[in-house]
């Protein structure tokens, strides 16, 4: 059968439900089993009696109902004695949960000066209890902290302003504590709280105010336009754009002398100079400055006006100013033919200070390097010190310096432009050099050249030139074209270049200005042979050389190049000759090794053709002994005559005899030499004496052993041993 039982969630642990089968006779033969939600964990059944018990406290908020199934079976056979029964356990709610807010702290804002009842924020608390069962989930709101400034609606939790005209400038932050209580707010209900931080936002309810009625500023009179004199600032209790303001000068006797600019970041009014100041003209200015809010809320017009004014007095300080010229610049015009010392103009300057010190004038010589002008230091009169020439310079830009005598370091400069006016002082001349020729077959009246002229002067009416011949010429004539050009024409037929190869024609050129200036230019006309069309074919040698001649500068350059080339050649030859000169013997210390090489080996004593052995046996047949050229002999010894050896004398005996003679001869120096003999004698006890092997030895050598070899090596001992001693002595 199906049965349903109810039990309370707050009941204590113990029997909560009893199940009993009709087949149960109380003899313990039946066994009750339980299955479903929470069976065996949350709910257990007594298998003998069928009592169902809860093992722990049950919370409806976790689960509101449980579905269980129970059955009675035979304990021995384990067969069911009745069909399975299903039942639902529903948990009844009790007020065991307090209301909670989603946030522990709320932040809200409301404009200052808001009317009573202005909504600030709505807070909502939730209760986990069953809202359909009693008042456990019915929440009522109340304010615990924040009165009398704010209130809360009990049913909705909407927080509203409770006082009118709350001023942010007096108090900006408020902390409100809201309570939510269940059971409809009755005694015994559970409650929760939250905190709401409320900020009053700013509105433009305060006008700007100057802290002072009068502000004093000072400025030197020499301050340039745009100089900041000082600042004014009004205070505004509001913040942000509600405190923004604009400054302006609304009245005063210096409205045209000064400006005021609003500094946005600092909300200050910067007063600047609009026009140059002068202490001697005015020393004190009074301005009325106004500050006005730029963002005004119409709701608070009744609190206005939202502007304020103050008086600014500006004192101009006296400064020792430099002289001031009567003009910013000067322009003087003068003719170029004036005499030296003529005054061309005067500059004027004064001391603007009340002391009115005398002024001294001077010229900046960097603007008049040629010192053409000068100035009178006392009255500023500018006069010429050198002649003027418009053709050289038409304009002169001078700089005049004015300084106070009492304070010469304080100076002022002014620009003076001098324009030189033209007079007719230059005669016209040929415009270019004319290379003119006439054909031998020319006819009378034939045009051979068109000429023009130039003039350095610049008359107002323009240039006008007249051309004529200096004297009547039988060969040529000039025809004025009246357009500043003229034509050169022939007056006869035929010319002969072998008779006259060149003609010189003086032409007079004059202008029409006053006074009239004229000059004579000479045309050089060559006589040339021409073809039928008048094209030049050849002229005389003299005529051809003239136009092709080199200038003096070119000839000088060519000569210099030739001279430089000659000098280079001479120096090169001298250096080459000097290199070829090498001394045979630089000093007597220059000892040479003489190597005599015999390419012919010879045939010994019997070979009388390869070597004349008779010469060795007969020293008398030898030429007179010649001195050595590679040394300077210290003493000139007369060579000794030795007796002739017999014809049958052995060569060995002959050589030994000669060696003995030379060993005892003090005048015979020990030369280093190499001789090849047909007879190879015994080895020398002194081994090799040649310096050819000296380059292979390392370090310095000791030659003292030479003194022990006998008189033949005394010279060597003196040369090598003495050298070492000299070296040691030095």
Automatic annotation (TrEMBL):
Membrane-related topology note: Single-pass type I membrane protein
Gene Ontology MF term list: beta-catenin binding; cadherin binding; calcium ion binding
Organism listed in the record: Chelonoidis abingdonii (Abingdon island giant tortoise)
Protein name from the UniProt record: Cadherin 10
Pfam families: CADH_Y-type_LIR (PF01049), Cadherin (PF00028)
Residue span(s) of domain Cadherin: 21-101, 102-210, 211-325, 326-430, 430-544
Record's GO cellular component terms: adherens junction; catenin complex
Single biological process term from Gene Ontology: cell migration
């Amino acid at each position: 059968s199906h049965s349903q039982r109810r039990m309370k969630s707050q009941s204590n642990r113990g029997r909560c439900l009893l199940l009993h089968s009709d087949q149960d006779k109380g003899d313990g033969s039946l066994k009750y089993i339980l299955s479903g939600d929470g069976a065996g964990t949350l709910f257990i059944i007594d298998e003998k009696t069928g009592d169902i018990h809860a093992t722990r406290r049950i919370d409806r908020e976790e689960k509101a109902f449980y579905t269980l199934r129970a059955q009675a079976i035979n304990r021995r056979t384990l067969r069911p004695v009745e069909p399975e029964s299903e039942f639902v356990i529903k948990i009844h709610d009790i007020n065991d949960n307090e209301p909670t807010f989603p946030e522990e702290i709320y932040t809200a804002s409301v404009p200052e000066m808001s009317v009573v009842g202005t909504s600030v924020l709505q807070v909502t608390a939730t209760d986990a209890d069953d809202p359909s069962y009693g008042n456990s989930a019915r929440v009522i709101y109340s304010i615990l902290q924040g009165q009398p400034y704010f209130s809360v609606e009990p049913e909705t939790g909407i927080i509203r302003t409770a006082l009118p005209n709350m001023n942010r400038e007096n108090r900006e932050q408020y902390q409100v504590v809201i309570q939510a209580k269940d059971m409809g707010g009755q005694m015994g209900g559970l409650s929760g709280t939250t905190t709401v931080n409320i900020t009053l936002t700013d509105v433009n309810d305060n006008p700007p105010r100057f802290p002072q009625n009068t502000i004093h500023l000072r400025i030197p009179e020499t301050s340039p336009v745009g100089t900041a004199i000082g600042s004014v600032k009004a205070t505004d209790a509001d913040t942000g754009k509600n405190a923004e303001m604009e400054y302006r000068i609304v009245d005063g006797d210096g409205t045209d002398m000064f400006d005021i600019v609003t500094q946005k970041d600092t909300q200050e009014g910067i007063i600047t100079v609009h026009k140059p100041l002068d202490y001697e003209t005015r020393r004190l200015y009074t301005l009325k400055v106004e500050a006005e809010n730029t963002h005004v809320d119409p709701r608070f017009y009744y609190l206005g006006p939202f502007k304020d004014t103050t008086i600014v007095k500006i004192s101009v300080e006296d400064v020792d100013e430099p002289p001031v010229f009567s003009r910013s610049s000067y322009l003087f015009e003068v003719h170029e033919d004036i005499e030296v010392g003529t005054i061309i103009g005067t500059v004027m300057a004064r001391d603007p200070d009340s002391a009115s010190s005398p002024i001294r004038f001077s010229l900046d010589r960097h603007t008049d390097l040629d010192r053409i002008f000068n100035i009178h230091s006392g009255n500023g009169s500018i006069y010429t010190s050198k002649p003027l020439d418009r053709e050289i310079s038409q304009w002169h830009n001078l700089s005049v310096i004015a300084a106070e005598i009492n304070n010469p370091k304080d100076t002022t400069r002014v620009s003076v432009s001098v324009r030189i006016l033209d007079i007719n002082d230059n005669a016209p001349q040929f415009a270019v050099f004319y290379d003119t020729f006439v054909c031998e077959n020319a006819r009378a009246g034939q045009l051979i050249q068109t000429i023009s002229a130039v003039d350095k002067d610049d008359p107002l009416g323009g240039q006008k030139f007249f051309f004529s011949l200096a004297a009547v010429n039988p060969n040529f004539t000039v025809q004025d074209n009246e357009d500043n050009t003229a034509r050169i024409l022939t007056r006869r037929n035929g010319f002969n270049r072998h008779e006259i190869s060149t003609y010189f024609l003086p032409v007079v050129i004059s202008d029409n200005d006053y006074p009239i200036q004229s000059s004579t230019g000479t045309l050089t006309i060559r006589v040339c042979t021409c073809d039928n069309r008048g094209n030049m074919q050849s002229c005389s040698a003299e005529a051809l050389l003239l136009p092709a001649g080199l200038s003096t500068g070119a000839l000088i350059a060519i000569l210099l190049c030739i001279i430089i080339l000659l000098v280079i050649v001479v120096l090169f030859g001298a250096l080459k000759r000097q290199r070829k000169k090498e001394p045979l013997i630089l000093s007597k210390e220059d000892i040479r090794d003489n190597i005599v090489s015999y390419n012919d080996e010879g045939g010994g004593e019997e070979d009388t053709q390869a070597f004349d052995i008779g010469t060795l046996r007969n020293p008398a047949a030898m030429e007179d002994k010649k001195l050595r050229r590679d040394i300077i002999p210290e003493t000139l010894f007369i060579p000794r005559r030795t007796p002739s050896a017999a014809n049958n004398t052995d060569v060995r005996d002959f050589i030994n005899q000669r060696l003995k003679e030379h060993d005892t001869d003090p005048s015979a120096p020990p030369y280093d030499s190499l001789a090849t003999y047909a007879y190879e004698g015994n080895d020398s006890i002194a081994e090799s004496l040649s310096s050819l092997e000296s380059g292979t030895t390392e370090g310095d050598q000791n030659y003292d052993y030479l003194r022990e070899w006998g008189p033949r090596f005394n010279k060597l001992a003196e040369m090598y041993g003495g050298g070492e001693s000299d070296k040691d002595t030095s």
